[in-house]
Amino acid sequence: MAFAVSITMFFVLLLLLPLSATAQPYRNVTLGSSITANNKNSTWLSPSEEFAFGFQQIIRGGYLLAIWFNKIPERTIVWSANRDNLVQEGSKVQPYADGRFELSDPRGGFKWTAAATSRDGVAYGAMLDSGNFVLANSSSGALWQSFDEPTDTLLPTQTLNQDGKLVSSFSKTNFSKGRFLFTLQIDGNLVSYTRNFPNDDAKFAFWSTQTVGSGSKVIFNQSGDIFLATKMEVSSILCLQARRRPRPVNFTREQYWNMMGF
Ligand SMILES: *[C@@H]1O[C@H](CO)[C@@H](O)[C@H](O)[C@H]1NC(C)=O
Ligand SMILES: *[C@@H]1O[C@H](CO)[C@@H](O)[C@H](O)[C@H]1NC(C)=O
Ligand SMILES: *[C@@H]1O[C@H](CO)[C@@H](O)[C@H](O)[C@H]1NC(C)=O
Ligand SMILES: *[C@@H]1O[C@H](CO)[C@@H](O)[C@H](O)[C@H]1NC(C)=O
Ligand SMILES: *[C@@H]1O[C@H](CO)[C@@H](O)[C@H](O)[C@H]1NC(C)=O
Ligand SMILES: *[C@@H]1O[C@H](CO)[C@@H](O)[C@H](O)[C@H]1NC(C)=O
Description:
This protein has one helix and 23 strands. The strands form six sheets. The chain has a four-stranded antiparallel β-sheet, with no helix packed on it. A four-stranded antiparallel β-sheet has the order 4-9-10-11, with no helix packed on it. It has one helix spanning 253-259, and strands spanning 2-7, 12-17, 28-30, 35-36, 43-45, 51-59, 62-69, 77-80, 92-95, 101-104, 112-113, 124-127, 133-136, 142-145, 153-154, 159-161, 164-169, 177-184, 190-195, 202-208, 215-220, 226-230, 234-236. It is globular and about 45 Å long. The chain has two domains: 1-9 and 26-153, Agglutinin, subunit A; 158-262, Agglutinin, subunit A. The chain is mostly beta strands. Residues 25-28, 123-124, 138 line the site of one 2-acetamido-2-deoxy-beta-D-glucopyranose. It holds the Pfam family B_lectin. InterPro entries: Bulb-type_lectin_dom, Bulb-type_lectin_dom_sf, G-type_lectin_kinases/EP1-like.
């Protein structure tokens, strides 16, 4: 069973989705290949086809470069590159041989670049069955990964490091940054804030783990348990307990929202 946790307007939610049973080799994205924002649905799929990387048209002529659950009718977006700057039709994303991974708009508009820790030795890109898109070297070491730049969602096996942030979407159909921020601060405290929308700064902290000096990372493990790892020990955050069900069912974010009574 797979899960995802996501910060929406107010709360951290979980999605339970069908499990991709077998681990298969990557379908590598070769350097120099590209996908273009248009209505042809071109994507890079994970081996199980559970996750897709590509463009979704959000408004007429406005595209979001995103990763989404590909096997449920509502293709729930779990990551995006340009949430505040939709790109136009004809925009392209491409991993280059020199290690750059770029989104460019044909009319010279917004451009997004993945900040690879090292540009040396990028061999291929791959959409993994975990929902992580990686740029890897020849020994499959990740040089850049979407898991390191979360938007509003955490997936199983993903961790949120110090200074990591989840910012809720503005609404269910508008993926721009919205009104809530969930962050593991550099000081080790895990805090939920309202945002000084539309400015980028935090306004009011309404929840925290009070772990200044000790919180080191938020771990979402394969079984759906979420922990705040501290320097001393791994402690459970009670308010982020996973909701487990015996049988995997397809849930949209909205259905979950309703089910949990929000
Ligand atoms: C793209 O995918 C959607 C949804 O699956 C489908 O309705 C549409 O016909 C596809 N478009 C093309 C050009 O294949
Ligand atoms: C889940 O979604 C898949 C793909 O859309 C579909 O084939 C399957 O029947 C769905 N399962 C349930 C339990 O609704
Ligand atoms: C992907 O690339 C790596 C490194 O070059 C290689 O070891 C692996 O076999 C490739 N996988 C596929 C499915 O092409
Ligand atoms: C590939 O990357 C990993 C982790 O980033 C690193 O440990 C490894 O040395 C690299 N391998 C090569 C051949 O560059
Ligand atoms: C999303 O909402 C923001 C804030 O109201 C707004 O500035 C932006 O234009 C909206 N984007 C879309 C695609 O509607
Ligand atoms: C996730 O954490 C829980 C609680 O510590 C543990 O029981 C479970 O075995 C862990 N799952 C994995 C896959 O490590």
